[in-house]
Sequence to fold (310 residues):
Amino acid sequence: MGAFLTVCMNPTLQKTLCFSSIVPGQVNRTDRHRLDASGKGINVTRVLCQLGKTATHLTQLGGELRPFFLALCKKDGLEIEWVESAGAVRFCYTLISGDRSTEITELVEEGEQVDAPAEERFLKKYKTLLPSFGTVIFSGAKARGFSDNLVPLMVCLARERGARIILDMRGSDLVKSLPYCPDIIKPNLFEFTGTFAPELKKLGELSGDEEGVKDRVREIALELAERHHCRIILSRGSRPLWYCGGGGFEEFPVKKIPAVNTVNTIGSGDAFTAGLASALDEGLDFRGALEAGTRCGAANARLLKPGVII
Fold:
């Protein structure tokens, strides 16, 4: 079994606040809150470590909050490699409300722009680390200031090294990385359609009936999987995920969680990625890896801290 390198260029301090209810336009107070190092790559790394895997996270860090971010990572036992940047660590906020039916609202800050030399430093560090890892997982969007060539180049280098490559991203980074034949791409359905079928999105939601959307997504996914020799996994929240690779387009059930047991779904997709990658590393077949991923995603949703399974 090999070691894992996770790559994410948009670190986050995640503030989670819980309310019995939220009244718009009023002062809402709570004594139930927490602050964690987060971001998609951190979440994946944390779950891999909780699964007993050796994982290292590569990111960029800048600003006055960098020591605090690193201290939180150290508290979680995470191995962090980072390069200096001018981009301060951003904050994101999760608002959880409701006593019987949980409503989760995510407020996301866009990351600050990094300085121009940060890209060269990042790529140099990546090249140094890459030979030590059998699986490379790229998660999330990059911070502003990094070029559109950086992620595809890193994917290309990982492919040349023969690493297993998992991409949980969207947009141009995903499109430009596909020619290097990643093993798995894992955007959610909304990200996938926004990247490859924007005509299906209207007013921030998918338009058309589910079967019509599924038919169009199936057509695109099968063509991409065949052309780029990859498997595609499309998560859909609590609904069965869609996946393809090996010739078919199928559904896989997601482990159901009673509403009363759902605490915080933020990070569940990242927990799925970690569970999937861990299972593949252990030699499970693809459906077995999907099952492992769904178990991890469900475990995360039962806990308040984002990106954990225990």
Summary: The chain has a mean pLDDT of 94. The CA atoms of residues 168 and 187 lie 5 Å apart. The radius of gyration is 19 Å. The longest helix spans residues 210-228.
